[in-house]
Amino acid sequence: MESTAANATTNDDDIAIEFRDVSYSLPSGQRLLSDLNLQVHRGQTLVLLGRSGSGKTTTLKLVNRLLMPSGGEVRVKGDTGDVIRLRRSIGYVIQEVGLFPHYTVERNIALVPEIEDWPKERIQTRVQELQRIVGLEPHLGSRYPRELSGGQRQRVGVARALAADPPILLMDEPFGALDPLTRDELQREFLALQQRLRKTVVFVTHDLREALRLGSSIALMEAGKLVTVLPPQDFLRSSDPWAAAYVKAFGVGPDSADRGAS
Fold it and tell me: Which of 41, 150, 191, 262 has its Cα between 20 and 30 A from that of 167?
């Protein structure tokens, strides 16, 4: 496998998430992940790229313990062994958003701070701040998810994930269900947000163009195994047959990784 900065030996303090010989199997015995070794560095946006069934979402869910490995170890910086505490310290954004339909926008964003018993004044200030950060107009705060567009709901999902200022953000194809123009807009906003906040992000997608645009590094997965981990420009020039197949399928070239470092 071609090596990159994502898997390089560095100071342990720089590693936010580490997979060590990780495997995962269903109760039926079907193996979904095999021998996964991967490091995610602080402030990095690591994109997990691959086809459906390649193991991307399974890998993501192992980080916040929605799944537990069948073998090996997943290390998350700051993990004390308290699963509930760990999950509250990790923002999680999915394609379906998962907003509570009977909560207003403001209440959805405030959910984790309320659970953490933040003072009401602090919660209100944080909610208003996040609405500005993700581009939600103030008057939308009193609306319910059903009254929002798809792009607006996705912005609420991102704001909710960021509410308690988690150091790690997990994003599972968050823009995949949006129309092309809204998707482009939210990708741009994500890049601006990441430049400002410098979160550690693990981002799942099957879209190479999105991976090239948003990722600091791209981890290509196939059939439950890690194929290669490369920076976007190196991915485009890779001699690995799977990476080359992706580049050919999407018709992209060396100038396609134009998103700027995140």
Answer: 150
**Could you tell me which of 6, 71, 11 has the C-alpha nearest to residue 220?**
6
Residues sharing a CB contact under 8 Å with residue 92, sequence separation 6 or more, in sequence order: 64, 161, 169, 170, 172
d(CA 41, CA 25): 26
Measured at the CA of 65, the angle between CA 87 and CA 216, to 5 degrees, comes to 80
Query: 251: left (phi > 0), else alpha (psi -120 to 50), else beta?
Result: left
Instruction: Give pLDDT tens digits for 176-193.
Output: 878 899 889 999 999 998
Please report the domains of the chain, with CATH numbers, ordered by start residue: 1-89+170-262 (3.40.50.300), 96-166 (no CATH)
pTM: 0.89
252/235 Cα distance (integer angstroms): 11
How far lies 133's CA from each of 32, 85, 109, 163, in Å? 37, 25, 12, 11
